[in-house]
Amino acid sequence: MKQTLTLILLCLFHTVLWAQDSSCPNAKVFPISTNQGKPTDLSHYLSFTSTESPTSNLTEVKSLFKLNLVTSADGVVPNFGNTSKQYWFCFILRNDLNHNKRTITFIKYPLLDQVQFFALRESGEVNQNIQGRKFPFQNRDKDYRGFSFETELLPSETVTYYVGIKTDSSVSVPLMVAEEKHFDSYESLDILLQGMFFGIVCVMSLYNLFVYFMVRDKAYIFYVNYLIFAAILFQLSLQGLLPVLFFQNSPELVYNAHNFLYFLFLLSCFPMSITFMNLKENAPRLYLGFMGLSVIPMVCLLLLPFLPYRELNQFGDLLSSFLAFYALFVSYYVSFVKKFPPARFYFFGYFMLIIGGLTTVLKYMGFFPVNIFTENAFQAATAIEVLLMAFGLGDRISVVQKEKERIQLKAEINKQKLIAYGKELKLAQKLQESTLPQILPKFPGLSIKTGYFPASLVGGDFYDLTVYGKQQICGLIADVTGHGVPAAIEAAMLKIAYMQTLAFANKPGKVLESINQALAGNYKNQFLTASAIFIDLDQKVLKVANAGHPALYKFNENSKSIDVIRPKGKLIGFSKEGLYSDEVHSIQKGDKLLLFTDGIWDLWENGDSGEDALLDWLLKRKAESVESLYGGIDEHIRLRNKEGPADDDITFLLFEIT
């Protein structure tokens, strides 16, 4: 009888154990005394399953564990990346002590939208709680940035827990358990570390803002902008501190703010990176690449109200990964290829940020396990990057200051050069003025007007009028190559050659031949055009010779067309053997003559040939005096100068036989 009763009791006991185990299969019982109540990772004691159709009823949950495939965590923190499935976790706690224990089951990862806790006691009583990012903060049993569930375990009591997780972000479930007093210590340390991080970032933001107002370098204001969005606002959301500090009763705002701050963080990277590395000057093509990529987060911000949270969040992870490698490549190129020292701080700082950021992204995507390193990598890397960037900005100021001093020194040197050049131009102007007639000759029976308008302070045109005998006057007009001091020197050489020629030359062809022989070979292989005339008022004869110069125009009030007089002749300086023939034309009272350099054609040029327009203009005003014609040309010059400075020198000689 005793044996039979013992067998029955053993069978009943085995049945109870089997029922307990079957309600949470593949899970080992965790005795509270194992770690003396300190925060303990439950991954060694977890089993889990998943479902495509979310459930919230305990009966259905228990059915899932009976019917679905159940997996043991085997010491690995569950991490499933971005998925739409709902995951249910099961574990068993046993109070192996002889007094009550208040325990806190908590999840350190704060980006879970819905977290359901069920605690099934041996008595059949069920304690439950639902919380998450989409629920008010007061649903949590503790004022903790993660999710917490409080249970009072009786002596020798065993409690089975079910935890359901669903989120539009990555499913990462670092489940922990601790006695209340140890949890409070753990939470205090977490608050201290978070406070240290945000304290460092806030101090650096204020410091760099102050420096910006001191130096007015836009790199600082872009860096402060980056710190605010990346290291403060986005980190507040990423670390689950927005509902703790600001929006306890606004879960939808907390939920929607995450992607918004995510893309603001990515957008703030661009102006900071571009100015920090002086990309526009150091790497123009890479600068254009940055500008093009900056459009992507802008578009994502605009699409936030229209696209699902999950898809945008996944795209943000991919975009941040790509930008991390691209920025690392660009900073390496600017630092070590273009040798811009401040960019090295950016390179190493961003390298640290990339390690932390990629670790976090890959953890969220399910490729890296959840542990103390992957949980805090991004935040720790951000703190290091903030400090390195501050050093880099200081170095950048030093480099920019040196560059500014170099530019100022160069500007001072250029200023002195300009002053010296200005003095040379004034000297050249005086030299050139000395080559031109100071007073026009007064000659009975001849009215003369001349115009000289250089395109710059010193021009390349030359003219001269000399009385030759009692009834003759000799005139020369020339276009010297170039401007400035060289042109003035060449004009002086031409003046000397011309004055020497007048001693023996008695016709214009001889004048040009003598000038050519004097200058050819001694004129630095440069050429000039010239036209020489002799006006004999006694014989009423005009003699003309030309060396590649524009024609002389002859007309009077009875002319039906303008006589264009241009004898053939090579440029002066081309060859010493050059010969220049004379053309002889009769003149009479009322005849007008116009000699000029080719700059005058530009005054009448308006889509068509300036020469044809000038001929038409002269023919219409053929009856006017030389004074009136001079006034008309002068008016054309002033009107043209309003459109912009002339491209060429303008010189002309007007004669009228009276």
Characterize the overall form: rod-shaped
Mean pLDDT across the residues is 84
Total beta strand runs: 23
Low-pLDDT residue intervals, each spanning 5 or more residues: 1-21
Rg measurement, Å = 48 Å
Structure annotation, total helices: 17
Signal peptide: 1-19
Domain PPM-type phosphatase: 443-657
InterPro entries: 7TMR_DISM_rcpt_extracell_dom1, 7TMR_DISM_rcpt_extracell_dom2, Bact_Sigma-Reg, PPM-type-like_dom_sf, PPM-type_phosphatase-like_dom
Protein name: Serine phosphatase RsbU
Could you give a short description of this structure?
By secondary structure, this protein is α+β, with helices and mostly antiparallel strands. It folds into three domains: 20-185, Immunoglobulin-like (Sandwich), CATH 2.60.40.2380; 217-406, no CATH class; 437-657, PPM-type phosphatase domain (Phosphatase 2c, domain 1, 4-Layer Sandwich), CATH 3.60.40.10.
Keywords:
49% helix; alpha+beta; Immunoglobulin-like; five-stranded antiparallel beta sheet; 658 residues; 17 helices; seven-stranded mixed beta sheet; disordered N terminus; single chain
Descriptive report:
The chain is of the alpha+beta class and 658 residues long. It has helices at 2-23, 58-67, 180-215, 218-238, 242-245, 251-276, 279-282, 284-293, 295-303, 309-337, 342-364, 372-435, 484-501, 508-519, 601-604, 610-620, 626-643; strands at 29-31, 40-41, 47-51, 71-72, 79-82, 86-94, 101-107, 114-120, 126-131, 147-153, 158-166, 170-172, 175-179, 446-453, 461-467, 472-480, 528-536, 541-547, 552-555, 563-565, 583-586, 592-596, 650-657. The chain has 17 helices and 23 strands. Strands 1, 3, 4, 6, 8, 9 and 11 form a 7-stranded mixed sheet that branches. It has a 5-stranded antiparallel sheet with strand order 14-23-22-19-20, with helices on one face. Strands 15-16-17-18-21 form a 5-stranded antiparallel sheet. The longest helix is centred in the middle third of the chain and has 64 residues, at 372-435.
